[in-house]
Design brief:
4-stranded mixed β-sheet; Nuclear Transport Factor 2, Chain: A; 5-stranded antiparallel β-sheet; 4 helices; alpha+beta
Length: 173
């Protein structure tokens, strides 16, 4: 028992303190909206949500009512929906949920795949040949959609292939 307590104590000493989320002001939110518009040409509007930035440039969305609460004295890790991650060169890698929100009306960087190919994608495989990628920008993140319209995630489009970023916990086996 004593060794177990000692082990737990040692583990806790190495835990990094949580970085609180930062609420983005209007100017930063507009910059993010420009990045979304440039990359996906979608009708999705960030102004309808409270937008926060967390560690590793992660972007979170929440209802505006959440901001009535004072988070200043709390080490908050997350609030709302993990929307995506801001990357270099004004690109954004959307989470599955972010892709579903933006992808409903996106006109750019949308790769449409057949059902059999979508099943392979959901298993975590990279997709070799993408047929319906005329509107996809090379070396950019794209929304992956089934032929029937169901949005299944996002991937990096490079050299005619889709590099899968589906987390292992979300894959099917």
């Amino acid at each position: 028992m004593h060794a177990k307590k000692m082990k737990m104590k040692m583990r806790n000493e190495y835990v990094k303190p949580a970085r609180s989320l930062e609420i983005l002001d209007k100017r930063e939110r507009e910059r993010l909206q420009e990045i979304l518009d440039k990359n996906y040409k979608s009708g999705f509007e960030l102004k309808d949500f409270g937008v926060m930035s967390g560690s590793e440039e992660r972007i979170w969305l929440a209802a505006k009512e959440v901001f009535a609460f004072d988070f200043s004295k709390l080490p908050v890790n997350s609030v709302g929906l993990n929307f995506g991650k801001l990357k270099q060169n004004n690109k954004m890698r959307l989470t599955i949920e972010g892709a579903q929100l933006v992808g409903e009306s996106a006109e750019r960087n949308v790769a449409v795949v057949a059902d059999m190919v979508a099943e392979r994608f959901l298993r975590g495989e990279d997709i070799e040949a993408v047929k319906n990628a005329e509107n996809c920008e090379e070396h950019n993140f794209v929304i992956v959609k089934k032929e029937k319209g169901e949005i299944i995630g996002s991937a990096l489009f490079a050299e005619g292939k889709l590099k899968n970023f589906l987390p292992k916990s979300r894959r099917i086996i």
